[in-house]
Amino acid sequence: MKQKFELSHPQHVILGLIEIAVGLILIFNDYYYFWPPQVAWVLNDDLCGGLGVIFGIMTIRWALKDSNSIRVNRNLLFFSAFFWCFEATAEFIHASVRPNAYMLTAGVAELGLFLFTLSIIDKSKKHNY
């Protein structure tokens, strides 16, 4: 008889997969951010995308584990909220400097992911009782 696989935290898996995808885009595109020119090299560093990939994998791993730590979840979701807020802000600033429909669309999508992360934080356990 087939055993049904139940996923207790599907929102975390979705968030982790999208973080991995955006992280890989940032890793493989070394000229994605262009403004301000003085710090474009920092924004285009593979560390920004690498952190998205690492924390996306950690979020998925947390969601698939049987014994989940509330503290780890809180820290992972805090990083995810920071990541999406940073990405949305960077996209909107770039779209205002050089009007580009792609940057504006990506900014709106990342703002939606930021709000999605905040909704997960709101629904997550805050304490062990």
Overview of the molecule:
This protein is mainly alpha-helical and 129 residues long. The protein has helices at residues 10-28, 40-43, 46-64, 70-97, 101-123. The longest helix is centred in the middle third of the chain and has 28 residues, at 70-97. The radius of gyration is 16 Å and the shape is elongated.
Structure summary:
By secondary structure, this protein is mostly helical.
Please state the overall shape, judged from the principal axes of the Cα atoms: elongated
What is the gyration radius calculated from CA atoms?
16 Å
Report the sheet-strand fraction: under 5%
Order of helices and strands: HHHHH
Which sheet architecture does the biggest sheet show?
none
CA(first)-CA(last) distance: 37 Å
- The average pLDDT value, as a whole number, equals 87
Q: What is the β-strand count?
A: 0
Low-confidence stretches: none
Instruction: Tell me the number of helical segments per DSSP (H or I, 4 or more residues long).
Output: 5
Helix amount, in percent? over 70%
SSE class: mainly alpha
